[in-house]
Structure formats: structure tokens, C-alpha cells
Amino acid sequence: MVIFCFLQIPSGVFSLFYHFRLAKTSKKQADDAALSFILGVEIFNTILWLLIYIIIFCCQSSFISPLFLWLMAGICLADAVAAFFFYFRKDKTSTATFISRRIAKCLTSRAKTVKSRSDAITLGFVSCLPELLFTLPLYITCSAFLQDENALPRAILIIIAVVIAVVPLFVIRAFFRTDHNLAEIQRLRVKLKPHFRFILLLAYIAATITLIDLAIINM
Q1: Which residues is 88 bridged to in the sheet?
Q2: Which residue, of 19, 70, 184, 200, has the fewest CB within 10 Å?
């Protein structure tokens, strides 16, 4: 859940989107559009959680084996390295991420041209796609462990995960609603970027160590 909170592409797109909406519409209309964007992110997370959970449920016998745990530990370790060294581009004055500039320009263009709630929902949904490299292993691992009948009610855990994933967007929304502008938000994000990198690194390493420990226990 920590990792979901500190990944930055949806947050960056959301900041631009809110800024452009404020320039074109009233605060109320911009805020309504922002909630639609957040709904799009929630829809993406919910669909992915349920889809992966169902797939793993249908193939349950092949999951939570030592081989699966070692494989996911290796992927999490690779993501830890990638998150620290490659997630953000080497530009101390921006929060540009690993995605290609073509994709970044496409997302920015879409953020400028949103005209309806459905467009805002679609943009929120699409903004999550580039981060599947970092989030998909988490969805798979968590969904596999949710098959455990001793786990807390699965629906509650998935709802909590979906809500936590959009907490950063609500924080940015609160900044805009209290009359902070994009430049101020961007300066804060740039200032916090080194902390984001270390938090992502530590969170992925913690996940890796946990998975290795479980793999050894189950061997």
C-alpha cells in the first residue's frame, strides 16, 4: 500500500488536469471533474484487483509455492532497483518519470482537452497504465495471498487498497481547493522526489525480504 501511495504518474497527470480545468471552468466544475478523474483511477484499480484475483482463484493450485515466492521476490527486487535508479529521470528541477516523452506529451494533451466527466474518468483510468511495470507484481502477490481463507475479509482488503491508492490525489485536490497553484504543488513534488525514491526502494526491499522469508519457510 505504501508503494501505491508513492508512485507518481497518476498524481502528475492529475495535477496538470486540475490546473487546466481551473483555467477553463469554475472551481466547482473543476472539482467535479477532478472527482471523475479519481473515480477513473479507482475503477482501474478495482478491475485489475478483481481480474487478477479471479485468474489466480481459477489456478489456485499453482500459486503460493516456493517457486512462485522466489519469482515474485526477484521481480520485487528488480522493481526496487528500477524505482530508485530509473523511475524518475535525472532532472533535479522536475518530476519527469521513466515513461517516454511521447507518452508524457499524449497524457498532457489529453489532460488539456478533457470536456466531459467520461473523458475525465477515461484519463484517470489511462494514467495508471504506464505504472503496471511497478504495480502488476504487487497485484499478483497480494491477490495470491488473499486466497488464504485465514485472511481478513477479502472484499474489505481490496476496498482498503483501492482507497489508499487514491489518497495522493485527494491530497493534491485539497491543495488546489485551498488556493495553491500548480507551480507550488510542483515545487513540493520536486522537493519530495528524493524521499519518494527512498521510500519506494525500502518498500520494495521489504516486500522482497518478506517473500524470500516465506519461500524459505515453505521449502
Answers
A1: 97
A2: 184
Residue type present at position 54: I
**What are phi and psi for residue 162, nearest 5 degrees?**
-65, -40
Helices and strands, number each (H, E), in the chain = 10, 0
Q: How far apart are CA 199 and CA 187, in angstroms?
A: 19
Sheet strands (E) in the chain: none
Distance separating alpha carbons of residues 174 and 180, to the nearest angstrom? 9
Q: Which triple of cell numbers denotes residue 58?
A: 481459477
Contact 171, 36 (CB under 8 A): no
Number of domains in the chain: 1
Question: Where on the phi/psi map is residue 111: left (φ > 0), alpha (ψ -120 to 50), or beta?
Answer: alpha
Residue 149 has pLDDT above 60, yes or no: no
Residue span of the structural domain in which 199 resides: 2-218
Structure confidence by residue, pLDDT tens digits, 4-54: 999 999 999 999 999 999 999 999 999 999 999 999 999 999 999 889 888
Grid cell at residue 182: 500548480
Q: Which residue has the cell 515513461?
A: 99
Yes or no: say if 76 and 169 are a contact pair by the CB < 8 Å rule: no
Phi, psi dihedrals of residue 88, rounded to the nearest 5°: -100, 140
Q: How wide is the angle at C-alpha 17 spanned by C-alphas 13 and 18, nearest 5°? A: 120
Residue 82 identity: A
Which triple of cell numbers denotes residue 161? Answer: 487498497
